[in-house]
Design a protein that fits this description.
- This is DUF4230 domain-containing protein.
- With about 220 residues, the chain is α+β, with helices and mostly antiparallel strands.
- About 35% of the residues lie in helices and about 30% in strands.
- The strands form 2 sheets. Strands 1, 2, 5, 6 and 7 form a 5-stranded antiparallel sheet that branches.
């Protein structure tokens, strides 16, 4: 009488599972390195960019009557930190370092001129013009020269980014950059330069029309 004994398969020990996982990870990393180094192979698995945007729609048209007489280029480094109460920054909080570059226009609104603001003598050789003071336009950030240097996030913020996409994540630093640029423009002398350039432009224009005396003054708009 023969007795058959079936073999019970042995379970893979824990250290063997860990070793297998490490080998798989190394193999994947090695394959990725080969794709990055060898020419041609990387292009096979490369990504393609497709612009599927719709056509731009014209919302409105505004007639411009202002003379842009000067433009200032500004740059600011924004360091914005947001912390949560009773939690360390490593758990909850963000800190963003952002370089904002933009321009501010100094202009004179010629559309506010009235008949009482322009005086011309009888033989059209002398003219006197009273203009409103120059003002500053809104800062316009330059996307080609504005960028995020670094962004530190807590553990909870990182986990939140995995499950959600926040398109306004850079909006706070962009608004802060525009605010600082606007404040810098107020003390930059840009309006003074704009009024000087406007005065020279009008004197040159009227001089070419035969006016020998041109007086330009500025009053509150």
């Amino acid at each position: 009488m023969t007795t058959s004994i079936s073999r019970i398969p042995r379970r893979m020990p824990g250290w063997a599972k860990v070793l297998t996982a490490v080998v798989v990870v190394i193999a994947v990393l090695f394959a990725g390195l080969r794709l990055a180094v060898l020419p041609g192979l990387r292009d096979i698995f490369g990504t393609e960019t497709h612009d599927r945007s719709g056509p731009a729609l014209l919302k409105s048209i505004q007639d411009m009557s202002r003379y842009d007489a000067a433009s200032g280029n500004f740059q600011v480094v924004v360091d914005l930190e947001k912390d949560a109460k009773f939690l360390p920054q490593a758990i909850r909080g963000t800190r963003t370092l952002y370089v904002g570059a933009g321009t501010v226009e100094g202009y004179v609104d010629l559309g506010k001129l009235g008949k009482q603001d322009v005086t011309v003598n009888g033989d059209r050789t002398s003219a006197s013009i009273k203009l409103p003071h120059a003002t500053l336009g809104k800062p316009a950030l330059d996307p080609d020269h504005s960028y995020t240097v670094s962004k530190q996030r807590g553990l909870l913020d990182r986990l939140g980014d995995i499950f959600s996409d926040n398109p306004n994540s850079e909006q706070a630093v962009q608004k802060l950059a525009s605010k600082h640029i606007a404040e810098a423009a107020k003390t930059s002398g840009l309006t003074t330069r704009a009024e000087t350039n406007t005065t020279n432009m009008l004197k040159g224009l009227l001089g070419s029309l035969g006016f020998t005396t041109v007086t330009i003054s500025y009053a509150a708009s």
